[in-house]
Amino acid sequence: MAGAAQQEGTGPVDARGPADPEERGSGEGAELLDELRAAIGKYVVLPSDEALTAVTLWVAATHIQTVLQHAPRLAVVGPTKGCGKSRVLDVLHETVHQPIMTVNMSTAVLFRVIGKNPRTILVDEADTIFSKAGENEELRGLLNAGHQRNRPAWRISGPEHKPTPYPTFAMAALASIGDLPDTITDRAVVLRMQKRKPGEKVTPFRSRYATPELNALRDKLAAWLGPLRGTAGHMAPTMPVEDRAADTWEPLVIIADLAGGHWPASARAACVAMTRYEAVQDEQTNLKTRLLRDIHRVFEAHGNPEALSSLDLVTALLQDPDAPWAEHGANGLNAYHLGRMLRDFDIRPANYRFDKGRQAKGYARNRFLDSWARHCPDLTETAPAPTPDATPTRPAQGKPPAAPAGSLPISPPSGTAGPKRAR
Asked: Over 80: is that where the pLDDT of 388 sits?
């Protein structure tokens, strides 16, 4: 998910603030959310207390969808079957606002079931919908657009072939083996499910017994939140995250602030913990970020020279048995693939003269500093100051690469003169 921790006390603040439980419902909301949280936890084992808090608030938020500006997705993902993903949807089906459950749905059906009072969409086995890259792009686009209000889907409709806007705004939960498309998880509260340990017990979910209890909680939520819609629609709570993460979590924090008690603090703690975890997951799985990290490792292994040839860099990357580069493309990573991937970071090869007069295409280390600082901030380093006689690496053609602002130039490794620009 996008968004980084923001300084405490910044951003828009609800005029009445979160710490006013009497006006928010005289403790009724906090007790009701506690009851809902306990009921959800009775039937499923979620990955953390923060995840259980998030699901509870997400369920409640479905009952005020009509006044929200954003409709967060709930991504229920697991590595294998049997992790409880479908059971989460079973519980949601009995507690959210007007659920519609499906294991497959066309785009045409989806935007016809969403109206001014949107239903809550529950999609099981979503991995079968997005099993291949590029499949169901129209449906993915619709789910992405529906995260924000006023993003309709336009279609030609009726015998007059009139352009007609169809609403897309609706909260949706999707269960999947394996990750969903990045653009969906970026707009989602993500539950990373795992199989239960032998000692972890849950109450068997039997519709005959569970449904009346959960439906009663659903009705209580609707009764509590109904009179508070106007208040909720004007709230702008203080958020501990920024950007899209703030958009996604704001409805959950609004519910928490309406409830009062411990919920405002619990919601914000869950928000910070879960968005930070997803940021780490995203960085580790993003191929281009992985490439930046592995190149940093290769430079370190070579003593941090001013530049490495494209051949040496590719060879070193292919030698890592745990890296994905040997399987990249048809025959593994090559210099062409490397150049294309680094081009997005504005890093390009140039001609350099290396030891023994060898001239070759290569990459200057100082061209990576800005990208390392932006995309791999934990790798940020303080480089040693160059010696007076050190000559920075320059490409043979065009302008020399400028060192990123605020960073120090890199000196040649000890005992070598460093590469010389080719003439």
From this structure: no
